[in-house]
Amino acid sequence: MKAITGNRLSDGAVIYLDDNDQWTSRLSEAAQFENEDSVAVLEAVQSRTNELADVYLIEIGSAGAPAGRQALRETIRQSGPTIRSDLGYQAEI
Questions:
Q1: E strand or H helix at 23, and its extent?
Q2: Distance CA 48, CA 67 (A)
Q3: Mean pLDDT across the chain
């Protein structure tokens, strides 16, 4: 399965496309696409350059967590900086 991710232009936050064609900051709410459907959706989303930057597909497992070669990168993107726990998203938890 695939999900579509990018960074919101207004604040740089990591966002995911949900089932309602809206953006969410939670990977658990991201729309999941079969591999063959994901490319067409990605191409449509890439034209929305006034909303986000660096849009791309990520592999997600059956539990909705990042999977495959990008798992570490996507886990860090979701959590924030790895050097100080008082900065980034993890500071809000």
A1: strand 23-24
A2: 26
A3: 83
CA 86/CA 39 separation, integer angstroms: 37
Task: Give the span between the Cα atoms of 51 and 43, in whole angstroms.
Answer: 15
| Token couple for 9 | 């232009």
Q: How far apart are CA 77 and CA 53, in angstroms?
A: 14
Band of the pLDDT at 67, cuts 50, 70, 90? confident
The CA distance from 9 to 82, in Å, is 22
Token couple for 72: 């570490």
Helix (H, G, I), strand (E, B) or coil at 80: coil
pLDDT 10s digits, 14-25: 999 999 999 999
CB of 33 closer than 8 Å to CB of 1: yes
Average pLDDT over residues 38-43: 86
